[in-house]
Amino acid sequence: MSSGDDQPKLKHHGDDVPSSAKTASSEADEKISLTTPDGEEPSDEEKKNLQHVAENLPLSVWLVAVVELSERFTYYGMSGMFQNYLNLPLNGSEGRGALGLGHQGATGLNTFFQFWCYVTPIIGAIVADQYLGKYKTIVMFCIVYLVGLLILFLTSLPVSLHHGAGLGGFIAAILIIGLGTGGIKSNVAPLIADQYTRKKMAVSTTQNGERVVIDPALTVQRIYMIFYACINTGALSLLATSYMEKFIDFWSGYLLCLCMFAIGISVLIIGRNSYVVRPPQGSIITNAFKALGIMIVSRNTDAPKPSWQAVNGGKRTNLPWDDHFIDELKRALVACRVFCFYPIYWVVYNQFSSNFVTQAQQMQGHGIPNDLMQNFDPISIIVFIPILETLVYPAMRKLHIPFRPITRIALGFIVASLAMVYATIVQHLIYSAGPCYEHPLCDASKVNGIAQGNRVHIAIQTPAYVLIGLSEIFTSVSGLEYAYTKAPPSMKSFVQSMYLLTTAFGAALAEALTPAAFDPAILWMFVGLACGTFLVGIIFWVTFHHLNDQEDVMNALDAND
User: Fold this and answer.
1) What CATH number is given for 51-283+337-555 in this structure?
2) Where are the chain's structural domains?
């Protein structure tokens, strides 16, 4: 490590040394700078010239991933049936249903559920960061989640529906489930990254003799790629619940979700001694808001620092934090600024579980349930993540092509806009086809009393889901990664909840668009979302691309904790 100190000295005396000696000196210096022992922090020259790689993951990462898989299996398998459960009447001619609220009513209540699920993470974050810690908080909210699932299952039974308990039971269930999933969501994402404890880069030699740099940032990126792959493996539960809904009834799908969630809780409890668990930090969130208040009043982001107060004759003494905490808080604020652009993305994302389901119903299914098409979103993610993680990203690193989080997020916005362009084209094809044209599911399309949709094959919708899935890998995975790496160690759950809160704002925007969710106006809603998402992606890149150059510096703050 002494080479880093010698290098500037050699350069300083370079004018008095002959050019040939200067060349020899430079070569020797470079050789020295690339011989750091394995396990030690690399020199600046090694960081620049050696390939950066991710590290193998501990077992506890995989245990947390299994818990997340089971929770997402439950969430998507359950909520994927909501649109039909709410939309269609019990024993209705359009197909199997339950509550009969119609398209707009179903979309509105479904969107509210999504909104609620992404507001409640704030509650879970405060409980974890200030009182119980992540693990105990997850266990507590899992129990709450389980109660909501039980209510949903019991009130979806035919006897309950025929006695009018369906709607009341559904509303009670989604309120409780939303509270449960929110408490889990804000904590499970930081908990899985907490299992990896390396904070600084280190030099390593591979079995092939190649010297590489183990980069914690790349390892965290890999963790969240695996985490997201587990989320979407769980989301394939719709393959089962869609057919269970179609050929048995909704209650059977809800029962499957209840049982799978029970398995997830069991894994969580059985593996309790394997996890790296960070203790709560008391009034850390309260302190953060106090520091923010000082920043706002003073109009100076350094004003809450004890050192600033001492030098500038500040009146605030005995502050319950140090300068480093304020530097971390400022970094977290950078992440929150980045998240401000996310709601428009989530509006697009929410389409795949609401209006895309209804769009699929307007086409001829050829035996495919309309809500089964949602599975092409997680399938595309499961296919693309290994390709990106094992082929594309390593190739880019070998070629020294940076693909930083801000770039990935901006690209995700652009790909999401393409998904909406394609959905617009599909909607136009539906309206151009008979027998119902701009009024799908009219009486002219009914066969044996069941509406068949216009003469467009349901499979044509597939690319829209594939594009949404690809956009998630760039935007959503990078958002999880950014929320973790930019948050102070004591506020991981809270900053994660701020990221998740953008999804709630996206659901609120989608709720505002519900009045436009009717034929044929919905086509123009898709056009507006396509244009808006593309423009936001461009504005996002212009606004934040400079943060790519600060990535390593901001991530290095954690090395001091």
Assistant:
1) 1.20.1250.20
2) 51-283+337-555
